[in-house]
Amino acid sequence: MSVAPAASARFDAAMPVVVIGAGAAGLVAALSAREAGAEVLVLERDPVPRGSTALSAGLVPAPGTRWQRAAGIADDPERFAADILHKAAGEPDPSLVGLLARQAGPALEWLADAHGLAFSVITDFRYPGHSAHRMHGLPTRSGEELVDRLRGAAEAAGIPILCEARVETLFTEAGAIRGVGFARPDGSREAVACEALVLACNGYGGSKPLVAAHVPELAGALYFGHPGNQGEAILWGEALGAATRHLSGHQGHGSVAHPHGILITWATITEGGVQVNQEGLRFSDESRGYSEQAAEVLRQPGGTAVTVFDARIAGIARQFEDFRRAEQAGAIVEAATAADLAARLRLPAEALAATLGAVEALKREGGTDAFGRAFSGVPPLAPPYRAVRVTGALFHTQGGLVVDGAARVVRRDGGCVPNLFAAGGAACGVSGSGAAGYLSGNGLLSAVALGRVGGRAAGAMAAGG
């Protein structure tokens, strides 16, 4: 990855706006720039647009939406912003938090009205840290459907998506971006001039050296994000003098089916499930959140744990395509009794029975355990049981390039790179400096809301120029 003077480039074509990356952030940015009146080109390194979006559950948190109002859910941007700041212990930039909280709902309603994305709000369980039901998803509750629908919308809007185009060089002049150079699978190289550039190529989760440098506790963990997330945006930004923030911030997940490699919804925990290690013992407060639970699971013998839940919770989890795939793959174990469950999972039967008995007693009493998990109002587990062996994983990084209120990249000296924008994992998000600051959905929140803001600003700049 490099930054070079524009005088050294021979541009093969010109496009007002170029977007690097065809995940949710890039496609939302492209649609927004096109709506603002600019022609747009999306460059994607993969054969088809997928990215980290396709590996997610495709859920976007948004307050004050029409879907919430129809369901009788009271929520607003101020309440959402307070939840984000509370989860991240006040570390994120309050102005960025406020911007994303205000933009998320209108962005989803725009995608529904202008591009036909059929969002609905999840009402049968609430993710940790959210004080209202505000997770919105498409019918299959899958990131694959989200990115496919966004790609279809871009194609319908006449936005070209050039796949298998790996951007290698940003060309600059007088502190501004003048174009990009990219390589094709046959080894040929092309360059496209542009008036505005949007970096939507996510973070650095796929770069082992960068992960080891910034998130050493997960350096050896399963990486469940897209391997193409190699930190190009950060490296280009640093070469341009851009400011970065919270590079150690990340989203982990303590619930990836092992060895199947399928994401298991955290509803298995929030609805009353627990995690035990190979000794049949609980080891943490699982309810804090799935991001920080990744490191907790990895510290257990073998780097795995078993999530125990029941048929009622499985019914809730089944709305997610990933969970249905896990069932089809045989990752979900069923057992009529705790003893049968222990035998099937090779856990100590007495220890597992004692653990489950203690949890159910806490639920009846409305007590709090030694880890600090409060069980008041948490539904009991009832046979037949369900369980899945899981491991911890790194999903994506949350730190990145600092951006202003128009998603323009901010320089270390306080100014801006005038025509460079960043969204999604390329930009510093709102999760702070560690795993515990990640509030469910923060990744797609940044992708959709900043993609909308940055794409609209880039499009207006190019159309006005």
UniProtKB/TrEMBL annotation:
UniProt xrefs under Pfam families: FAD_binding_2
Domain of life from the UniProt record: Bacteria
Keyword Zinc among UniProt keywords: no
Keywords, in A-Z order: FAD, Flavoprotein, Oxidoreductase
Domain named FAD-dependent oxidoreductase 2 FAD-binding: residues: 17-443
Keyword Cell membrane: no
Cofactors required: FAD
Protein's UniProt name: Fumarate reductase flavoprotein subunit
Organism field: Methylobacterium crusticola
Taxonomic lineage of the native organism: Bacteria, Pseudomonadati, Pseudomonadota, Alphaproteobacteria, Hyphomicrobiales
Protein's gene: ifcA_1
